[in-house]
Write the structure tokens for this entry.
Amino acid sequence: MTNETLSLVKSARPFSLVVAVVSCGLGVYLGLRETVAPLLIVVGVLVAGLLLQIGVNLINDRSDLHLLRGDAPATKTRRARIRLSYRLGLICFGIAVGIGLALVMLRGWPLLTIGIAGVIGAFAYTLEPINYKRRGLGVMMVFWLMGVMMVEGAYLAVTGTLSWQVFWHALPVSCLVSLLLLSNEIRDIERDRGEGVATLAVRIGLARARGLFWALALAAFALSIVYSLIGLLSNPLWLILPVPLLIPVMRHLYTDARQSLPPWTGRLLLLFGIGYALAL
């Protein structure tokens, strides 16, 4: 594998794709518990979700182009890689939109509304004039766009209906989806501060960002406990499954070696998603 290919793979941020897997997977699973859907629809939902997130990841670095000045070979190489990543990201968006439109023809305009909001949100994450990452809104927006809306959209694509119960089920997973983005911001806090990128972690500082990290993690488990008490979850003991991962997550959160925090947080999200589905 060439260095250029490795750079593109890195730009796609494979560890973060667990977001699309868990969010779309939960929506599909909830839908299949209520109705029978063709395999093609299930595959289409999962592939569209993955492509949408890969597209987001690939275009993410385009906002850094203005920081790359000069004609040094390394700078030229990085500019070329960012432009190539952006073009590949647009291709991913195009395929995802095509799949989405096919699903809209089957399920109607509510799915179109969710899809349009998702695509706009994806572009607005780092691109001007909105760039809500720079405005410190990334963690909140990801909660809704890649969490709640992706779960509800996947459910809608499978069943053709919307559901408040699915909305409530999406909240614990959405907390951990936001947690994964926050782990990225905590990892990059010094670099972002130096480059003038005012992410939420930069705005509130490392100590408060760590506190918010645990607040989101505990909220996911607390909501699950509440759901088990009111009958939305039948076997909450499955949620013990991700608990051991809190130990390495804590270790990477409170040391200077925060580079591995996002991958460990991604594993936590994956096991929580599996445990939550089994708890249903």
